[in-house]
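Structure first, sequence second, as always.
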């Protein structure tokens, strides 16, 4: 049985840290739509510029980034996000560096989320190969290391204090997960419709059959747990 760990009712701020424009829409946009619908403030932090996802020989990295950022802004509008923060690291070259950790920490301290969602910090062999893109692994590792200990500890990256960013404690971390999930977040049909509209906004990346696949995967998740639709996470509560 899944553990029912809906976030504490006093929480109302979330941050989603992912590598690419469209990662959040694939993995957790139902949850984001649900929380925005409930009045939460949700912020995305996009680590890379999405500048590599094209087979078109005429495409340039600069043009692709512009297209993908516009698609992400459109998705954000559909979902009702507070804002999207762009860290602008080059797509496909992301590593869980101290520099990336500092940049994510800055965003955590700035927006002070109660709950942070990110991707898995490791490769899972039993899964679809594409879900273990090295940038996803790097973004997940850097985000988890930013929550603990870096965003919490004032003596780490003292320059952030000088910039005015005081330490912040994130209360829950939700890692998008299939094999290791301990929480299935119920998503209504209405929220799923909004989420899939946001996914479809990534027109340069997401063909209609991919949207169908995501819908049936989340429906399948839900069916196993007597829910209409569900998104799966491995969750951590920090004391
Ligand atoms: Zn991706």
């Amino acid at each position: 049985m899944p553990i029912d760990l809906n976030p504490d009712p006093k929480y109302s701020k979330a941050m989603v840290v992912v590598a690419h424009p469209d990662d959040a829409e694939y993995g957790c946009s139902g949850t984001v739509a649900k929380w925005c619908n409930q009045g939460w403030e949700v912020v995305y932090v996009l680590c890379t510029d999405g500048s590599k996802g094209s087979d078109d020989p005429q495409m340039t990295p600069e043009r692709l980034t512009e297209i993908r950022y516009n698609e992400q802004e459109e998705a954000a509008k559909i979902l009702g996000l507070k804002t999207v923060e762009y860290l602008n690291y080059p797509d496909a070259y992301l590593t869980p560096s101290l520099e990336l950790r500092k940049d994510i920490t800055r965003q955590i301290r700035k927006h002070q989320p109660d709950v942070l969602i990110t991707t898995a910090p490791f490769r899972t062999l039993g899964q679809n190969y594409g879900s273990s893109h090295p940038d996803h692994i790097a973004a997940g590792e850097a985000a988890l290391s930013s929550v603990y200990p870096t965003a919490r500890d004032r003596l780490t990256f003292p320059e952030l204090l000088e910039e005015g960013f005081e330490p912040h404690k994130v209360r829950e971390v939700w890692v998008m997960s299939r094999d290791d999930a301990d929480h299935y977040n119920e998503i209504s049909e209405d929220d799923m419709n909004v989420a899939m509209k946001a996914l479809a906004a990534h027109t340069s990346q997401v063909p209609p059959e991919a949207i169908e696949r995501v819908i049936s995967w989340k429906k399948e998740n839900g069916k196993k747990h007597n829910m209409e639709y569900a998104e799966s996470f491995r969750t951590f509560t920090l004391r």
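Margin note: The longest helix spans residues 61-79.
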